[in-house]
Amino acid sequence: MTSNLEKSKSSCLYCGNNPIPHTVHKFYESLDIAFGPIRRGLSQSPLGAAGDKLGNLVGIGLYRILKAMGLITINTSIDEIKYDRARVIWAEAMRRQIPIEEIKPFNRSIDLYKSRINNRDFWFMNLPRREHVATSNLTWVDDKWLLKKKLREHSLPTAKGGAFFRYAAAKQMFHQLNKPVIVKPRAGSRGRHTTTFIYTEDDFWQAFKIAKQLCHWVIVEEHLFGDVQRGTIIGGKLIGVLGGSSPKVTGDDQNSILELIRQTDAGRPMGVKEIQVNPYFMQRQGLTMETVLPAGKTVYLSEKIGVNYGGTSFDATPYTHPETKAMLEKAGQVLNVSILGFDFIVPDIRKSYKEQKAGIIECNGAPFINLHHDPLIGESINAAKAVWDLVLENK
């Protein structure tokens, strides 16, 4: 328990298990937002298509030069693949006898691959897909503010709030919103530097500074209650809904939170890591490790979600209400991207989102489809099969 806390403090408590260099991330993400309108305008013009083709030619040319110099390593073993998402893509490619290899410049894994389809090389990063990344909506779907505006235009559910550069304007929104409030960087993923359950102006100021460490623009919105679900859209169809929850303990009127954590960790299922506590998150709830909870009272211990933080993951596809499934597919059609992952919150997944305070909170243009393959609870869904079906359909 203590080691987990110490590790969090020695790296970055707010990045969790996925730390990134703050200054570099803030520079590039903020620059991308600032010049995004110009870039998107060019990408949708004839210049964008020409630039995309030129970029591909330059990339292939650079590959050939580096390979001739011995600076490219080719990996053909799935056992040496670093990323779990890529592993499931490889496994399905091998099952279909599709030749595939990893391209490693300077012997470094950068999630870059090459397959062979119909006697032609097919290059991709992260996931194989049918559209050109540079000239598609993939250039902006990860932007939480642009996503929110696009969803609102089509009457799709999203939390009330906005994006802000300056604290004064953000504070005005904080006072207008129902509490609690959530604050997060406008750009970024995996819940990095996100603060939830904000009730007071002092906590809001602290959360604003935390989010600003990763992006000049900050999202301020009403907190939606419930487990975060991930709906994955492939080829316009919802292939699965994966639920995830934060680490939590339930009181028994006898043991402290620390002891409850020890008991939970001792009995955790295989694949679930030890509970990681966010002290700041607990402080905002008026809790300490010595707090004894009343019998039956459940408290969350961190904003972070999933098995890597001591939480859970479960396949929620069979229980998701048909109207919620249709809503997610409509969102996929609106964004017009072949592979998407929507993070959304619906308090009761069995009921329609229309009956509850619900909303889509984020979109990931390169979703971790591997999570559908191995949920802690529920049936596995072969998302990689749907990806290759889509790619081969257009070849």
TrEMBL record:
Keyword vocabulary terms for this entry: ATP-binding, Nucleotide-binding
Annotated GO MF terms: ATP binding; metal ion binding
InterPro entries: ATP-grasp, ATP_grasp_subdomain_1
Residue span, ATP-grasp domain: 148-392
Entry annotated with the keyword Nucleotide-binding: yes
Protein name: ATP-grasp domain-containing protein
Organism: Candidatus Doudnabacteria bacterium RIFCSPHIGHO2_12_FULL_48_16
